[in-house]
Specification:
Length: 271
């Protein structure tokens, strides 16, 4: 049986870096599994849409597709934008079997990538003093995802022994300006913002601009997508591909919602 195609689902933007990051991830996945068909689709902005990518794959004889959302703020199900896009794929190509996998989500391993990006930002701005952190993310209405993001924020702050607050770009929680103000009200004046984003999307650009205007001493670039993210994407794909199999009454249990409490070993940000 031919394995389903894997389509990386990214948020589009005019910035070519997004396409470069997604392309690098695609190359990483194809290097791991040369026999696997891997493509990329974009939710808005430049680049082919999920419907366009699905149509091209269908013309090549593909019968099944697993879409893997490159979303790090949603833990258990993809954003409404991603879900709507896959509904349009199913409507446009009824002969295709499509599955929307769990998004990348706020996995502990991403804290290492967040640290690396923020250390670079602190170095670029010649920052020598730091007494507060903000973890800024796109946000989600899912309560469980928000709880997991809050856990990652606590882990990050506890590791560096600094006060740390979660901020959201949308209206589901405190904005980055409000998060910075919360830390300022505690007497902390040297606040840096870690960007819980994979690419320079519109949402990242908005939160970076807002954070600097609110007095942040530095804002990290996105974490980008390295081998660790590719590994997570492959795991999501495998589970999604299993969901396409009809086991009848022997339906496998859904992927567990439990997340490890332990963050990976992190260096001090200033190190």
């Amino acid at each position: 049986m031919t394995a389903p195609a894997l389509v990386l689902l990214a948020h589009g933007h005019s910035d070519p870096q997004i396409a470069e990051i997604t392309h690098a991830m695609r190359n990483e996945l194809m290097a791991r599994c040369p026999e696997l068909v891997v493509r990329a689709a974009y939710l808005g902005g430049a680049g082919p849409s999920p419907v366009q990518v699905a149509g091209k794959l269908a013309r090549l004889g593909t019968e099944e597709i697993v879409f893997v959302p490159l979303e790090v703020g949603c833990a258990y199900r993809a954003s409404a934008t991603a879900r709507d896009a896959i509904s349009r794929v199913a409507a446009a190509h009824p002969d295709l079997r499509v599955q929307l996998a769990r998004p990348i989500g706020p996995e502990p391993v991403l804290l290492t990538m967040l640290d690396r990006a923020l250390r670079q930002a602190l170095s670029d701005h010649h920052v020598t003093e730091l007494d507060g952190l903000v973890l800024s993310t796109a946000g989600t209405e899912d309560v469980r995802s928000r709880a997991l993001l809050a856990r990652r924020t606590r882990q990050w702050g506890m590791h560096h022994k600094l006060a740390c607050v979660t901020a959201y770009v949308d209206e589901t929680g405190p904005s980055v300006e409000e998060a910075i103000q919360t830390l300022w009200s505690q007497g902390r004046r040297h606040v840096a913002v870690g960007s819980w984003f994979l690419s320079t999307s519109d949402l990242w650009a908005h939160q970076a601009e807002s954070a600097l205007a609110a007095g942040a001493i530095a804002v990290s670039r996105p974490m980008t997508a390295g081998p660790a993210v590719a590994e997570l994407a492959m795991h999501r794909y495998v589970v999604g591909a299993m969901d396409l199999i009809d086991f009848g009454s022997l339906v496998p249990a859904a992927e567990g919602d439990e997340e490890p409490d332990e963050a990976p070993e992190l260096r001090a940000i200033g190190a």
